[in-house]
Structures are given as C-alpha cells and as structure tokens.
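Take a record.
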Amino acid sequence: MWYWIFRALTIFLLRVFFELKVEGLKNLPTKTNFIVVANHTSYLDPFIVGAVFPAKIYWIALRDLYKVPFINWFLCKIESLPAGNATKKLLFLLLKNRNVGLFPEGTRTHDGNLRQFRTGAALLSVRTGRPIVPCAILGAYEAYPVHARFPKLFHPITVKIGRPRYLLKEFNETIDDIVLQEGTLKIRNAIQEMLHAG
C-alpha cells in the first residue's frame, strides 16, 4: 500500500515541478517480470523510474542510507533492499515474478557522463532468464546533480524505456565472466544510445 501512495504523490510532484515525461512504455514486457536498469545521475532517479513504471519495482539502495532514520523508514515501507549480499534475495524475487531495479553504476555520476557498469544485472538475467529493461533518464543531472544542495525546479525530465534485452539463461553453477561482461556491455550501450539520441 505504501508503495502506491508514495508513487502517486511522486508522479504528481514530478509532473508539476519537473514536467516529467516518459517514452517507450510500449516496450515493457507483458508476459514476464523483468529487471530494470537505469543510469544514475541524481537522488531523484529512483523516484523518477518508480513513478513511470506501472508495475512495482523492488529497488536496491545503498546500505548507508538505512542509517538515516527517516530514509530508513521510507526504504522499509517501499520494500527496498540494502546493497551488498542482496543477490539471493533478488533472485528469489525474480523467480516469484517480481520486478527488480538496479543502478549498475553503483553510485551517482559526478559529471553527468555514464560510468562503467557492474555485472549484477547481467548475472540476475542469466540466472533467471528474465529480460533486462534499459532506461535512460535525461534531465535529472541538470535538475539535481550530486553537488547541488537543492533541486532546480521546473527543469524538464524525460525517461526513455528501451526494448527489453534477453540474455541466454545459464544453468551452470559458475558463469563465465566473459558472458557477464558481454551482457553488461550490451545493456550499457543500449542506455548510452538513448542518452545520445537526446
């Protein structure tokens, strides 16, 4: 219940103060759950992506955020998971047909450029066979970059949802690093292309 209350409020605020727009909703898988992967430029990003997806997303959040009382309460209410040793929990959620969300850069970019991706999303995909949905968030860095104390209101933000990427499911206990690196590069390139298209 709390997730949907926060989502409704977030949609309203983002549309009023940041002219939030979304492109590519038709690309969302309709017959399976999925893994959301997005670039990370701002504190606003989890709220932005959560607002544009009609289905619930279980997010990974930095462990340090759980040390802040109000943020800890909020993250618990929306059922986010702390980063670090969360792979088993994410696999469980995916196999239970839940959607999960990751920012594979690991942290916000300091210059607006896309950083290197970690291989966690690719690992989840090859373990479960679930598709990865790449998302490009445009305008969030300009609206609320890392070094800013307050967001810049009324700066437009757009989310582009790309076509789902399917990685070949692996049944071996050990997955080749090359497979993970190739899958990760495929997802990063998809997001980079959407960012460059503007």
